[in-house]
Amino acid sequence: MTSFAPDSIVLNRKLPLWYQVSQSLRASILGRPRDAPLRLPTEEQLAVHYGVSVLTMRQALKELEDEGLISRHRRRGTFIEPDARRGAPVRLLGSVDAIVAQQSGMVTELLGHGAVPVPAEFAEHFAGVGEVVAYHRVRSDEGTGEPTNHARNFVRTEVAAGIAPGDLERWPMTKVLRDVVGVEIGRITDTVQARLADPETARLLRVPLLSPILHYTGVTYGVDGRVLDVAVIHYRGDRFSFSVTVEAT
User: Are residues 166 and 48 in the same domain?
Assistant: First the structure.
């Protein structure tokens, strides 16, 4: 039986290896073609693929099993759950690859884009800048078509010049900035708040007005310290949870 082939990543030794591996494998699973094999390679094969120990690989697989993305069967192997729920925790730990993984595996519709004045609440991030380019998208579960979140990105104009609208229907903004535009990302600062769905969010996510949602703001900085992008994402409260990992060492 042919096994599913995950993507490769460059691991950051300053972050937990199991976490980076689990997020990379998660992105590969959620972004897989519909006709991809459901069987994963063995723990040993995956460990070699990612360049980690079998123990680290086992911990990464347990994370995905707990999330319901895979099932593990003694003697038979490890399999992708074909109907696995695509919702997942919003995590505030990781490399850029982990952020990309968090945003992957959904169908994205670009609702609109164009130049707008810098929103007052983000003026401090775009000092001396009059306009930014705004992108508005809705992401939906690939299997059910159910909307899971809607996002607005406010991107520095000179950076947005390198973005084609179709790019954002295929890839997360973080990947587009890094791999398409070619900017060097220094860091991403995340904030998550609990809020109630306003009329627009309720309509786009097909939830009752004042339903609980997770309001995420992500600020992406270049290596020179400039803000490249501010993302505002509203996640359905019944599809996502908030998770933070704190390392003791």
Answer: no
